[in-house]
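User: quick one, fold this
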Amino acid sequence: MAMEQVVHVRVADVQTGAVLPCRLRIRDASGQVHVPLGYLHDPSVRPGEEVGGHLVEGGKVWVYVDGSCEVRLPPGRVCIEVRRGLQYTPIETVEDRGQGRIAIRIGLGRAIESPPGWCWADTRAHWLSPAAAALEGAAEGLELVHVLATRWDTPGLPRLANLLDFSGQQVALERHGCKVVVNTYQRGGAWGDLALLHCHRVVFPLVAGEPGFEHYTLADWCYQCHRKGGLVVWPDFPGLMGERLPLALLGEIDAIEWSAQSFAIAEELYAASGESGSIESSAPELGSSDSPSDVEQKAPVPRRPRDRKLSGLDLWYALLNTGRPLAIVGASGKLSNATPLGAVRTATYLATVEAGRSSGPSADGLTLANWVAAVKRGQTYATSNPVLRWQVNGEEHVWRLTGAGNSPSWPADTLNLHAEARSVWPFSRLELICGGQVLATAVATSFEALPGQPGKDAKCSNTNDNRGASKYQVWRAELSWRLHKVELAQLPSNWLALRCWSENLLVAHTSPIWISGTPRLSAADRELLEDALRQSEATVVSWPHPRRDQLLQRLKQARRLLAQATAAG
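Assistant:
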């Protein structure tokens, strides 16, 4: 048998020559997987165990490298697969390693360009060290990763994972072009969980009902986070209504999170378990458990009748139709090596956009403060694959087209919107919606492009300049839409949004683009929100709490606001 040798593998950008952090997988001619030195052949996929540096996806073992590694390989043909985020073309190349060849060089081409001013972030991951988060984040094309610490009660695992890494409003570590910040994840049990980002200090308690904190509510967490400019996120939306729905209606929650599970199917069913009395989601697992509620030992919550189905999209749209500006953020919710960072991610436009005009990319670049401010302004979209781009009346990435008194501030009598979605992975269609209703649809088609020429059709390229270059596929959908001001009253609501689908799976969604100041709440929206508030009330009246009267008062305030929105619409 031929002797194995240690081979140096290097992955670099075909345009710049810069070494690229990435994830890779190497197999020999017999199909045997070879992992680089210092990595595991059989990494754990259990939540909280050995998290970092590996990915097990669809039965395949991948490793994360900083762009170079050493691996023992036999002579002969080896197959190397390389991935790097959403903008580089995924490759699978075969290299013939003759005896004595001890170096393999791989070029990775950028397939899709992002316009300046955007930042790619994962807003929630657990169990990763800052160093592992920076490496994996860079390899997945992220510039910012939020690692969230909390208290866990899983036997055999650390009970206070990442808490000593807390960095709050400072970057904990920056490496490979990726910033890592550590904040906290508050576990609320029956009341619902919250992610508190950009807090100036750790907010306690980490778990509702801890001794000495029995009187605390989710509202207390929100108040403490907001007091110093923090960002409150409703994770794994929608989940249990608990106290979160009234808080969202009252403006105490800044964003909803689309995680690797929450919108994987259009609807989630929340039902009471007949044996334990705990409430669990029947949404199917995606490779592994990605929700913190699947790791913790669940405390019993009050039994209640089986809930009707709640669509996460419909609930979010109904909240937007009350006039609440809830942004969307994307998160992997990573708990184990079974989920990649950025499986769902947040694209954030860091420039200030007012009255339909952008200030241009921030001179400060990416800072935690300007990232949080941009999310609060709703300048985000969440995606698992497609990269979006749009213009309104020639201005790129507009989020609000309202002026004084929330009246339309378009410079002309007509609103012209053009949108495009591109992806290195197949998707089906791009849609423009208003208030949840589809206004326009574009079917995605594919074209061949060349490395080093992002998004450019290979048919338009000079073949003499690209001899030997491997073509790759890019999927693209484009749509254009026009609205006259006199037609505003005919729209179902006062906001637009873009979203992409891969068959029946949501793969991208923007935060709302506000076009006038009058929200329009339909009867179906009102019924859905009233039903969700009844679920919140069932928790309040069934679950003992020292401040039950205040919780009920908050529910009354939320219902009063809903009634006002109904009257206005």
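User: anything notable?
Assistant: Confidence is low (pLDDT under 50) at residues 263-309, 457-469.
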